[in-house]
Specification:
Length: 443
C-alpha cells in the first residue's frame, strides 16, 4: 500500500499557504459556500427566459416532498392538452390517484421478483438489489403509461392530495418494512416447497395488507365521480358519473402506444440505433415493458424539437442537480466554475459519468419551449414540478450545452421517428442489468 507520509502532507500545506489564489478561494468558500463562490454571473445573461417557441401551459404544479416528478410530468403533458381543448385555467389531474395505483402495483411487482429469485441466496446481487428498496416513489415513462392504461385518470378534485402523498417519507418507510416482511414469508414458503395454490393464497392475503395501508394513507381511489368546472369565459360545465377510463377517453384521448422513449447513453455497451430494456424494472405485472431506443444526442434533440414545433410538450428525464441553480431556475454547463474555484479538473465525458457512477437520470420534467437562432436551439424552456417559488414562476432555462451533457431521455410520438429509427425501436431489446444507470427512476 502507498501510505501518506508526514513530510508529504507538510509539503502540501506549504504549497497551499504560498498560493494567493487558493487562499482567496478559501476565504470566499468559508463565507459563502462552494456553489455561491463558484457561481458564474455570465450564465444569467446567456440564459434569459425568452424563447422563440413558447407553448402556453399555465401554472406549474408542485410535487412537494415526494418523488413523483415522472407522474407529474406525464400528467402535465395531458393537462396541457385539456387546458387548451376546454379553455381551462390552473387545472390539474390527480397525482394522488396515480400515486396510489403505482404503489399498489409496485408491491405486486415486488412479489413477482421475490418469487422469481426465491431459489437464490438472500445475499445474491439480485435479491440484495430487490430488498434494498422494495418500492419507491420514482418511475419511468412506460411505468406511468401502464398505470394510465389500467386505471385511467381523474381530476385532482376527485382524489386530492393527503399528508402522505405530499410528503411520502413516512409512507415509504413503513410500506418498505411491510414488503420486506412479506419477502420473508414468500421466500420461506418456497423453501418449504409450498404448492403454487398456497403461495398464491398467501400472496393475495399480503396484498390486502398493502391495499389497506395505502387506503389509510392516501384515501380510496374513486370508482365514479362528477366533473364540474368553469372555463375562462365563465361557462359552467357539468358531467356526472364518469369513471376514470371514460374521463380519459373523452377528455384526453391520447393513444399512449404511439409514444416511444428515446435515450442518449453514449457508452460502449449500448450502441446507438438499438433498443434496450432493463431487467426487473417496472410496476404493473403484465403491463407495458420499459423500452428505450438509444440515439445520438443530436437525433434526440431533433425529435424533441419536432414535437415542440408541432405544438406538443415533451416529457424528458435528466440529472437535474448537475451544474444547476435551483433558485434562479438555470441549468447550464457554465453555471458553476467549480474547477476554477478549487484548481482541479473534474470534467468527464457523458459516457464516463454514466460508467463511473457520477451521473444518471434523477428527475423528469417537461420541455415547453425552445429558443432558435438560425434554426439552431440555444436554450430550452422547462416546466418543473417544484412550485412557483423557484426559477421564473417555476419554469427553468436549460442551455443547449447542458441538454447535451445531462439529458438522458425524451418521449416523442412514434411518427416523428425515421423509418430506420422505428425499425430499431421495434427490434427485440437488449436486456440490461437491474443496476444499469438506464434503470434509474426519476423522482
Amino acid at each position: 500500500m502507498s501510505t501518506i507520509s508526514n513530510e508529504q502532507t507538510q509539503a502540501y500545506r506549504a504549497a497551499f499557504l504560498q498560493d494567493p489564489i487558493r487562499l482567496a478561494s478559501q476565504r470566499s468558500v468559508w463565507k459563502n459556500g462552494i456553489q455561491n463562490s463558484a457561481q458564474n454571473q455570465e450564465t444569467f445573461v446567456t440564459n434569459t427566459p425568452q424563447f422563440s417557441i413558447d407553448l402556453n401551459t399555465g401554472k406549474v404544479a408542485n410535487q412537494k416532498q415526494s418523488g413523483r416528478c415522472w407522474m407529474f410530468a406525464a400528467l402535465n403533458t395531458m393537462r396541457h392538452k385539456m387546458s387548451s381543448d376546454l379553455n381551462l385555467a390552473n387545472f390539474e389531474l390527480s397525482q394522488n390517484y396515480t400515486f396510489f395505483w403505482d404503489k399498489y402495483e409496485k408491491a405486486n411487482y415486488f412479489y413477482e421478483n421475490i418469487l422469481a429469485t426465491a431459489q437464490q441466496e438472500r445475499t445474491s446481487r439480485e435479491v440484495s438489489f430487490l430488498l434494498k428498496t422494495p418500492q419507491q416513489d420514482g418511475g419511468q415513462w412506460d411505468m406511468i403509461v401502464s398505470i394510465f392504461q389500467k386505471y385511467g385518470v381523474v381530476p385532482k378534485a376527485a382524489m386530492p392530495e393527503t399528508a402522505s402523498s405530499e410528503n411520502s417519507t413516512e409512507l415509504n418507510v413503513y410500506l418498505n418494512k411491510l414488503l420486506r416482511k412479506h419477502a420473508i414469508i414468500l421466500r420461506q414458503l418456497v423453501a418449504e416447497n409450498a404448492s403454487d395454490e398456497t403461495i398464491e393464497s398467501k400472496r393475495t392475503e399480503l396484498l390486502q395488507e398493502v391495499y389497506d395501508l395505502l387506503a389509510t394513507a392516501l384515501g380510496l381511489p374513486p370508482e365514479t365521480f362528477n366533473f364540474e368546472y368553469r372555463d375562462e369565459e365563465n361557462n359552467f360545465i357539468q358531467e356526472l358519473d364518469l369513471t376514470p377510463h371514460t374521463f380519459y377517453d373523452k377528455y384526453i384521448g391520447i393513444d399512449l402506444d404511439n409514444y416511444v422513449s428515446v435515450i442518449n447513453a453514449p457508452t460502449d455497451d449500448k450502441p446507438f440505433m438499438h433498443s434496450y430494456s432493463v431487467d426487473m424494472l417496472g410496476n404493473v405485472a403484465g403491463g407495458k415493458q420499459v423500452k428505450y431506443l438509444n440515439l445520438d444526442i443530436a437525433d434526440l434533440k431533433e425529435l424533441a424539437l419536432k414535437q415542440l414545433q408541432s405544438g406538443e410538450s415533451v416529457w424528458f428525464g435528466s440529472d437535474v442537480g448537475q451544474s444547476s441553480l435551483r433558485d434562479k431556475g438555470i441549468m447550464a454547463t457554465d453555471a458553476l466554475a467549480v474547477d476554477d474555484l478549487f484548481g482541479v479538473d473534474i470534467n468527464m465525458t457523458k459516457g464516463e459519468r454514466l460508467d463511473y457512477g457520477e451521473s444518471l437520470m434523477t428527475h423528469a420534467m417537461v420541455l415547453t419551449g425552445v429558443d432558435l437562432i438560425n434554426d439552431v436551439p440555444t436554450k430550452w424552456k422547462v416546466e418543473n414540478s417544484w412550485g412557483e417559488k423557484v426559477g421564473t414562476d417555476g419554469f427553468f432555462v436549460m442551455s443547449d450545452a447542458w441538454m447535451d451533457e445531462y439529458t438522458y431521455q425524451v418521449v416523442v410520438r412514434k411518427d416523428l421517428l425515421s423509418a430506420e429509427q422505428q425499425a430499431a425501436f421495434d427490434e427485440e431489446p437488449t436486456v440490461l442489468a437491474p443496476w444499469d444507470p438506464m434503470g434509474a427512476l426519476a423522482n
